[in-house]
Amino acid sequence: GHVGRKMSATLASTGTPSFFIHPAEAFHGDLGMITPYDLLILISASGETDEILKLVPSLKNFGNRIIAITNNGNSTLAKNADAVLELYMANETCPNNLAPTTSTTLTMAIGDALA
User: Phi and psi at residue 70, in whole multiples of 5°?
Assistant: First the structure.
């Protein structure tokens, strides 16, 4: 969520209207903020995050366009997106490949480039 919030804040501060919705909160009322004209950027390193994948059918029903930022161009998220920005990341820099280090840095760089 931190990377998505940062991306949204950067877009908004450079003149592109933007807001962040955490996927876990979406079905508890936050989906009401989305209009059919909104372009959505969905972020998932694996492209298989349950909370995000549960959103996709509703977003498609609304008529939204989806950009996926993922490390897996063959993922369910990527296959359901209108555009895919693939990270091409081998591993996180964390010794145990657990902490999101490389993936968050790459995603923030993509967000800054989009802004």
Answer: -150, 160
Burial of 29 (0-12, 13-18, 19+ CB in 10 A): exposed
Name the amino acid, one letter, at 9: A
Per residue in 63-87, pLDDT tens? 999 999 999 999 999 999 999 999 9
**2-114 to CATH, choices 3.40.50.10490, 3.40.50.300, 3.30.70.60, 3.30.70.240:** 3.40.50.10490
Sort strands 65-70 and 39-43 into parallel, antiparallel or unpaired.
Answer: parallel
How far is the C-alpha of 112 from the C-alpha of 55, rounded, in Å? 25
Q: Where are the domains of the chain?
A: 2-114
3-class DSSP string for 24-36:
HHHCCCHHHHCCC
Q: Are 65 and 98 in contact (CB under 8 A)?
A: no
